[in-house]
Amino acid sequence: MRARRCLIPLALALFAARCSDQVGPRIAEQQPAAQSLHFLQWAGNAPPQFMASGALSGRGGQRVRLASPGRLSLGRYTAAFWAVRGEARSIQINYLSSTGDTSAPFLQFTSDDPAYVPGVGDLAPGDSVLITVTIDPTELKVSLEPTGLVFGNPAQLQIWYSGADGDLNGDGVVDDTDAAIEAQLLGLWYREGPADQWTEIAAVHSLTDKSFTSALAHFCEYAVSY
To answer: pTM, whole model, 2 decimals?
Structure first.
């Protein structure tokens, strides 16, 4: 991350002027093998809690609380819904407060044209595929499956990072350095599989909403990082 870290002083010099609310779309760049990313961490000591709404498990409109990490293998959260070729379908996942009575958005995914499923082939209009969203309980990472699902019309993914720890550089304080990192360095990254390198993906960054929005042509793993 040496090349990206050297941008922090420049970002701080520009911080007073700040960039506009909409930053992007960003130009994807390949992560050199020698670099390591700084993944955003969830705020607080307890695992985050979520609520999902949408066309879940083929039962549109129902609200389903995601299972706690202790009930799932790998200690992760999952939710699923049916995407249909030729029909707009979406899922939204919100953060839940500690009391469970308030929420804020974390992820929204919308698709109307799942076109090809690995191992199945091309989908005809009206055909469906079960899409699963898996959330990492420690870092702001999500996996979308089935891996390799291809869309005719790009799907839209929006991820909010307002639930992350504000101390982005991990120095123990939330200050102007963290704000500069957010404005100038933070991005949406993806990788095809665990053995692959992370690559920054083109995305629109909204500082006001604290979110990234990107058009997806296929599925893999995504993370908010710098």
So the answer is: 0.76
